[in-house]
Specification:
This protein is an alpha/beta fold. 45% of the residues lie in helices and 15% in strands.
Length: 221
């Protein structure tokens, strides 16, 4: 079966507010640096996915806009400025203004271990449904929400979004063999699991830099 060319919407908070729970593991500057690296690796893997036509990043952060735009993403200002779900709906509406039948999926920006092949598998499964979603690794939230045809995206991310998306009629997609698409990173423990899966090059580089900086600040002897 020929897969549709999907458009993905990736939301990203201003970096000064991003990944606050990661600060305990990597410090305040580290969590901002890693939030951008996570997004770069997520967008890079998504753009490399054969099933993906384009990626729209919804953000008001100027540094993130430059870096993600340089990768080939379409950068969209968060005009609603009304939270995550409003940003996703805004991005999806802009994409569908160009093509009303465009299959659209919302994808978390914090998937540093994302594999293009696993994302292809998820999107292929989403081809079978009007609206569908993939739960996160914790089984509580959502990392991807997809809508095809006349279906509205109708995002309900945040907290126990798995239950909300299921209650809204979205079909839960198969969970096997797609660990990298489910592994979002909010805490140091999440990051350790992502590292075992294998993170992308930008996240790996930033982590090396943070380790080097920490070692240089440590007292000798």
């Amino acid at each position: 079966m020929r897969h549709s060319d999907w458009a993905l919407v990736v939301p990203l908070k201003p970096l000064w507010r991003a990944k606050s729970r990661l600060a305990d593991a990597v410090g305040d500057a580290g969590r901002r640096t890693l939030a951008l690296a996570f997004a770069e690796d997520t967008v890079g893997a998504a753009l490399a996915c054969p099933a993906v036509r384009n990626v729209a990043v919804v953000t008001d952060d100027p540094l993130a806009a430059r870096r993600l735009g340089a990768l080939g993403a379409l950068v969209v200002a968060d005009e609603p400025a009304a939270g995550l779900n409003a940003a996703l709906a805004h991005g999806a509406a802009l994409l569908r203004a160009r093509d009303a039948q465009l299959p659209v999926a919302a994808l978390n920006a914090d998937l540093p271990a994302l594999r293009s092949a696993e994302l292809s598998r998820v999107l292929a499964a989403a081809e079978e449904h009007g609206r569908s979603f993939l739960p996160d690794a914790a089984g509580v939230g959502t990392t991807l929400l997809a809508a095809r045809g006349q279906e509205a995206l109708a995002p309900a991310f945040g907290g126990p979004s798995r239950a909300r998306h299921r209650a809204s009629g979205a079909v839960e997609l198969p969970l096997t063999g797609v660990d990298s698409v489910r592994r979002d990173v909010d805490t140091g423990a999440d990051l350790a699991v992502a590292l075992r899966l294998g993170v992308g090059p930008r996240t790996a580089r930033r982590l090396d830099e943070l380790r080097d900086a920490s070692a240089s600040l440590s007292p000798s002897g």
